[in-house]
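seq as requested:
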Amino acid sequence: MALTYTAGSLVTARGREWVVLPESEADLLVLRPLGGSDDDIAAVFPAFEEVTGAEFAAPEPSDLGDQRAAGLLRTALRIGFRSGAGPFRSLAGIAVEPRAYQLVPLLMALRQQTVRLLISDDVGIGKTVEAGLIASELLAQGEATGLAVLCSPALAEQWQQELRTKFGIDAELVLSSTVSRLERGLDLGQSLFDRYPHVIVSTDFIKSPRHRDDFVRHCPDLVIVDEAHTCVAAEDTASGAQNQLRYELLRRVAEDAERHLVLVTATPHSGKESAFRNLLGLVKPELANVNLESDAGRKLLAQHFVARKRADVRQYLTKEDGLSDDSLAERTAFPSDRYFKDETYKLSPAYRALLDDAIAYASERVEAAGSQGKREARIAWWSAIALLRSLVSSPRAASQTLRTRSAAAIAASAEEADRLGAPLNSDAADSDTLEGMDVAPGAEIDGAGDRLSELAERAAALEGIGDDLKLKALIKHLKALLADGYHPIVFCRYIPTAEYLEAELGAGETEDGKKKRSPLGANTVVKAVTGTLSPQQRVQRIEELATEAGTDAAARRVLIATDCLSEGVNLQHYFDAVLHYDLAWNPTRHDQREGRVDRYGQRRDEVRVITLYGADNGIDGKVLEVLIKKHRQIKKDLGISVSVPDELSTGVTDAIVEWLLMRGRDDQDALFSADAFKVSTAKLDSDWNSAAEREKASRSRFAQRSIHPQEVAREVAAVREALGGTGEVDTFVRESLGALGAVLRPAGEDFTAQVGGTPAGLRDALAPVVGAEVVEKDRAIPFRTDPAVGRGEAALVRTDPVVGALAAHVLNAALDTQADGARPARRCGVITTDAVDTRTTLLLVRYRFHLTLPSRTGDKQVVAEDARLLAFQSSPKNAVWLPPEEAIALLDATATENTDAHFGERTMTRILGQLPDASDHLARYGDELAAELDASHRRVRAASGEIVRGLTVTAQKPADILGAYVYLPAAVAAGVSA
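struct tokens:
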């Protein structure tokens, strides 16, 4: 049977109208509902089901709307588009509205036949969204058929969630905990990576030679690598075996010149030029050795490297960027600053005595081990550090550490002792993973049981604010933050400390069954998240905290967390302050902690950071002075974080511990004049300052210049013209909800809406999105102008699910004249207004386009939609067509007087009967739009000639007239009606 219906034509089947898609065959039609999304696509066999051709029904002249009808219908239609005709195929269908600056990496990618990019934007700017945009677009265009994201296991579930909810990409998790289950479903000889086209893979799992070879053989044609800086090492440092394995994995993945590769990291340089070069070499081999001081070298790098600070994008597409005006200006609400405050505490007499005895014990053990051999010396060293750090952390961490055998005690050599002891006792910036690093490290070694047990009992007895003055200070500072309306995160080093703080700060029951109130107040909810929970359980615990606190303005949230949350989970929607309860020995860890809340989407203009340190414990003050404050100053000067090399920070902290073991706490002031300390701090300052200067120079020298703001502005304007902007959506939501009977209440620039009184169809559409309980109990739904919203809030952007549900209801009600309840949008209208001086007709026209998009995997046939406003004066036969901007301006026309209903219907009937005379103009305009779209596709891909060969765009005839609206000057309306 021959194919009766061409792609793009309308058919009627199953009681509704559909658009025929290019994937259709002679005996099988692939259909998308008219106005529906890709989720609603269905396959129909014409031999078994009735399929008939459909003509788009003309508007009903008696179904007249008011002055808002045209604008609401237009916006509802555009919000529903899921297959835009422009060069960005995916933008209409994704559930995130990217900022203009986030389109820059996408534009860079589309200019390359094989995408090779290093995205190094600052923390919190949105690198995940930028990488997701590239992946979504390449998959939509057919340039890629599969996706692999390589990341740490702690970030895997967040990547899965982001890809699924924002980009509609379902990816399987390939982790050590999931691989057995996935492999059970494979056919004989089948690779995991052939079975699942989209995967999120733990870098640490897949880097081993046993798994790496299979991955490289069956690797998808698009790979995204998160935290890519951990996969390379500088040539002049002793890189760990794990770095080498990761680098070998990436080197082999990058060897395929046809594979798309996107590397993502906020710290590409890290002060080491050779590490930066190794990273660039993965992107493009020539970049590993090219002279970046030359114009040719910088030009080559600019095609593959983008690195921007917040200051670069806080205000974008303004006159300062070279644009003629600020009409497309976009201001992104990052917190303007972090407010730092360092607060001190002193040890109680009992705690001070315990610490002194522990230092004396550790000193004896280290000194005795030194004469027994290098292995014994290193075991004793790591045991001493574990003991001191846990004592400084909390009584519970100290007690558990003293009762736990040292991880290094089983080492057979000094090197193995370092390998086992270092991860648990230091805070390396590039640890393999933060998983499992928050456990109590253990200090017990052979022959020390009785003495350590006695110290452990003394530590356990110090719990509570009586002897633990650090806890007392914490409560004081938390109360101050809560009183100012903040919701803080308290970061600890060890699991026992976090559990101790949760028990002390939270409400609950005492051992004798009595209720215990939180010292932070009855309205404060306290919960802890540690490495004892899986990544998914951590997210659930945070959601539980938010739910328990509720929406009461007086409620406060306090989260106690270890560094298992210092990467991965973004917390800016729930928390706005950070309190460092335990100092990290590498300041990069502090920056990571603070970056969980200080990022795009944080509503506080000022994020507060409190660092709690001991004035007399012999360690904290020196770490704060030498490492933490230095890091802050460099970041303040440069606007970005510069990592301190691990070996240098370790050198300083080793010198502090050595001095403490030799001299005790009382001689700390002399430490700064000690020769060993001077050498280590001098080298730290020298290397760190050099790294900062190199970073500053590289940021200036390699600033993103391959895509000019004018080019971004042109594409942003085209996207907004086709899909609508934020202002249009805001107006649509307010006016539609108001017309449908919702109760709106202002909240600054935002507002809330109660939808209990709206038509049943809208309530049914919103219930799955906002929750049935919200609708049934008529709770207020917050609508935010900022697209970065929290749980239970709706963003005033076209991609928000709540906005989409509202638009679908408004559109369906406009097309169905028999729909129940209010119908804000109508397909016809006659408006008497001072905005025109002669009769003017506005048409809302839907165009469908056939696109042939060449790609590396063959030509792809797609059908896309666009909605345009066209206006003419006089009759359709003698029409004087107005410029597009004048047609759009009619949407703002207000009625100056009522129009007689009978007169309006007669006028509308006459105009609709004459509209066939306008068919030729509508067809020509469709051809003009097709030519513009063709040019736009070619422009975006201008740098890759092969990609545009065979590109075609043609308009489907005839176009659909969705709405017709007549605007009459008052004098004409009065004269005719009389």
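Residues 675-701 form the longest helix (27 residues).
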